[in-house]
Amino acid sequence: IDLICKDKETMVFVEVKTLQFRSEQAAEEGLQPEEQLTKAKLQKLKRAASLYAGHYPELIKDERGWRIDLLALIVKEKSYNIKYYENIA
Q: Which pLDDT score is estimated for 22?
């Protein structure tokens, strides 16, 4: 878990995946950051989020509880692309 924050009253655990390319050709051939999040990693994120939320129940003030989001960042030379996915698990 890279970030822990709140969206209104929902606790949000954010996983950040980043790829950095030195050329446009390498960017076209590489995996997307989203593809780096494996099922095993997602299971670990769920467990860690559940443990954290259970340890700090006072931080959860909404019936929705918590969620896991993904921030995918691609850096290409001097430009970047950000994709944000809510509630991936």
A: 65
